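User: Second chain of the day. Same drill as before.
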Amino acid sequence: MEIKAPIKFFSGRATRYLAEKIVKNFGSELGKSSVVEFSDGEFQPSYDESVRGCNVYIMQSTFPPMDNLFELLMMIDAAKRASAYNIVAVIPYYGFARQDRKDKPRVSIGAKLVTDLLTTAGVDRVMTMDLHADQIQGFFNVPVDHIFASSLFVPYIKNLNLEDLVIAAPDMGGTKRANAYSRFLKSEMVICYKLRKKANYVDEIQVIGDVKDKNIVIVDDMVDTGGTITLAARMMMDKGAKSIRAATTHAILSGPAYERIENSPIKELLVTDSIPLKQESNKIKVLSVAKIFAEVIDKVYNYQSISDSFIQ
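Assistant: Same format as last time:
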């Protein structure tokens, strides 16, 4: 009978709040690690217990600052040099995912660069949630477990028992996601068309479909400055919508995002804890992804299929 390598969990500093919940759901605890900080800003992570021959799961979302990504890379490298048997990077929010192609001349494909850095550091597997672009999975030459927050959002939306429910895609790229939600919720779907001349600024937005007297739920993988969803919400309310809600996996919420959401007609914004909130808001409800990640880790560790666990 095969003897499996023991499993150990560690976390970067930025995601410790979530890692503690994940390992609690798994029925374990975080391993001992520390970070030495130097006066010039450099830092050096280290494991304060042996990881030799272990399945090492390192948890860290890679939202700004860049130190979060680099700390993850250094922890992977340290585990490899300490003779870990298998190294899995658990990245609830995969930063730089919006840079998945050359959308203009002379730019980097940042998402591909990050995959190369992770691979070079020594990662054997990656777990992440709601990538901005599904094709990023193909940038890796190691297995990627791509988890969907829809398994949290769909039951929550169902329990609202909204009549005349309509799912809205905030842009053309989000139609696949919106279609999946509308299929499981047995609702209609509308699509927003936006004209964006520069990053983080939407010049114009229109809706394709009927929203009059409908309860709208906008679904997306992330909310950054809040410009798209608040503009879409205001436009759909002007067209006669009953109510507007939004379900966005990653709460980046930078710049004027909180102010825009507070001043918008959005009744409720659902997000996950893949990124910690910078401030509280009565309009924002956080659903934890800890149980989902714990279940996936358990299935992967025990060589079980995860395909039937999620709404895609």
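DSSP finds eight helices and 14 strands in the chain.

User: Great, on to the next one.
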